[in-house]
TrEMBL record:
Gene3D superfamilies: Flavin prenyltransferase-like. It comes from BD1-7 clade bacterium. GO terms for molecular function: carboxy-lyase activity; flavin prenyltransferase activity. Pfam families: Flavoprotein. Residues 4-191 form the Flavoprotein domain. Belongs to the UbiX/PAD1 family. It catalyses: dimethylallyl phosphate + FMNH2 = prenylated FMNH2 + phosphate. This is Flavin prenyltransferase UbiX. It is an enzyme of class 2 (transferase).
Length: 207
């Protein structure tokens, strides 16, 4: 079976750690990851993780390779693009990409995607995924939400987008923040048809 190619977009909602863990797991599963990081996500990384990301896609890739201690083969599967690189594969429906995950998804990016905007590469890639009817998962992180935001989620859900709010459960008895992150990442992996062993499926611990 051919390996999957997925776009991962990190927007400026709280929860940069979800995205880091997601990228690590996707690469570990042999997926080719096309990674897009918004300006606001960089700000979140700086404030939330005390990790200011370097400018430019090559230095950012190097920083991620070091942070995630990626092997050479996993590093080869990590592709980054600048936010206005309209010539990149993610900007066109002709590139053989299987789908897109926006994690975390800010309400700003949610609104832009729900309204078909293309002002940056994240929005363009999402527009392409929608028009090509590709698998799309969004992980909104906001609370409480307004009727406008609910409307945007509803609109995307009607188009087949999997709306997976970053609201971890507690029934797996988390002992750490990492366990809560893994809960969400496990659910995302399931939505893109990848196996996961981060969280035991409900019921298996009772057998
Ligand atoms: C530390 C921090 C946390 C934020 N958390 C959220 C959030 O959880 N949800 C949200 O919708 N916006 C959040 N924002 C605001 C967004 O970053 C802002 O609306 C931005 O314009 C989103 O841009 P983007 O969608 O291009 O990434 C946060 C901003 C900062 C600096």
């Amino acid at each position: 079976m051919q390996a999957k190619e997925l776009i991962v977009a990190i927007s400026g909602a709280s929860g940069f750690s979800y995205a880091l863990r997601l990228v690590e797991c996707l690469l570990g599963a042999g997926v080719r990851v096309h990674l897009l990081v918004s300006d606001a996500a960089r700000e979140v990384s700086r404030l939330e993780m005390d990790w200011p990301l370097p400018e430019g896609h090559e230095p950012l890739k190097q920083a991620l390779v070091e942070r995630l201690a990626l092997s050479e083969s996993h590093a080869r599967n990590l592709c980054l693009y600048d936010k206005r690189d309209w010539t990149s594969p993610v900007a066109s429906g002709s590139a053989p990409i299987d789908g897109m995950i926006i994690c975390p998804c800010s309400t700003g990016t949610l609104a832009a995607v729900a309204n078909g905007m293309s002002t940056n590469l994240i929005e363009r890639a999402a527009t392409v995924c929608l028009k090509e009817h590709r698998r799309m998962v969004i992980v909104p992180r906001e609370t409480p939400v307004s009727a406008i935001q609910l409307e945007h989620m509803h609109k995307l859900a009607q188009l087949g987008v999997r709306v997976l709010p970053a609201s971890p459960g507690f029934y797996h008895k988390p002992e750490s923040v990492d366990d809560l992150i893994d809960f969400i990442v496990a659910r995302i992996l399931q939505q893109v048809d990848l196996p996961q062993d981060l969280i035991k499926p409900w019921g298996s611990q009772h057998s």
